[in-house]
Design brief:
- The longest helix has 17 residues.
- Helix content is 39%, strand content 10%.
- It has one domain: Uracil-DNA glycosylase-like domain (Uracil-DNA Glycosylase, subunit E, 3-Layer(aba) Sandwich), CATH 3.40.470.
- The protein is an alpha/beta fold and 228 residues long.
Length: 228
């Protein structure tokens, strides 16, 4: 099945009642600053370069970001910080992403969230995470050149380990611990590279700075080039 067909099917998913109720309530009530917008209010599929060697794996859509725009990390402060870094490091053709179909194009990068619907308080349950796992599996199987997963935060790190298991890659015991700019499973088919999530909590406090995020993306390119 093509990536486009998977995205269309993903966007119709209603498997998690709590997430369905929340994403649709947010889309109906709206934030005042986006009152004139038509919210997406559905699951948000991955997007990017179909020939990507790198999967950039996040947590979940933001309630008034991707749940509004329909494209992951688009239209929120975390995405503003991240896309600027992707542009500086040559993975994106422009430094901003405010809506779907705004001209953004990615090179060598596919971006997806471990959980595809906006969760209340940005906290998915373990069951919701597991319900979404199959969508990531199906996308990854259609990305023939994938060589690395960059995990934005510890939740994405754990989800990436489950994704590897679902892809029947070699199990790891003990499981590697998340860390910023830490590489795990380096000699495996699909290693992981950790990065602090570009949440406002991290960027406003200086836990994650622009040079730190740029360094991770540059490291990601070095890793996939070394394995080419």
């Amino acid at each position: 099945m093509s990536l486009e067909a998977i995205a269309a099917e993903n966007a119709q998913c209603r498997r998690c009642p709590r997430l369905v109720a929340w994403r649709e309530e947010v889309a109906r009530v709206k934030r005042a600053s986006f009152a004139q917008d038509t919210y997406w209010g559905r699951p948000v599929p991955g997007f990017g370069d179909p020939q990507a060697r790198i999967l950039l794996f996040g947590l979940a859509p933001a309630a008034h970001g991707a749940n509004r725009t329909g494209r992951v990390f688009t239209g929120d402060r975390s995405g503003d910080f991240m896309f600027a870094s992707l542009h500086r490091t040559g993975f994106a053709n422009q430094p901003t992403s405010v809506r779907a179909h705004d001209g953004l194009a990615l090179t060598d990068m596919w971006i997806a969230a471990a959980v595809r619907c906006a969760p209340p308080a940005n906290q998915p349950t373990p069951g919701e995470r597991e319900n979404c796992l199959g969508w990531s599996v199906r996308e990854v199987r259609e990305l023939p050149n994938l060589r690395l997963i960059v995990c934005l935060g510890s939740f994405a790190w754990g989800a990436a380990l489950r994704l590897r298991a679902a892809l029947d890659l070699a199990p790891t015991r003990p499981q590697p611990k998340f860390g910023h700019d830490v590489v795990a499973l380096r000699d495996s088919t699909l290693p992981l590279l950790g990065c602090f999530h570009p949440s406002q909590q991290n960027t406003f406090t200086g836990k994650l700075t622009e040079p730190m995020m740029d360094t991770v993306f540059e490291h990601a390119r070095e890793l996939v080039n070394a394995g080419a």
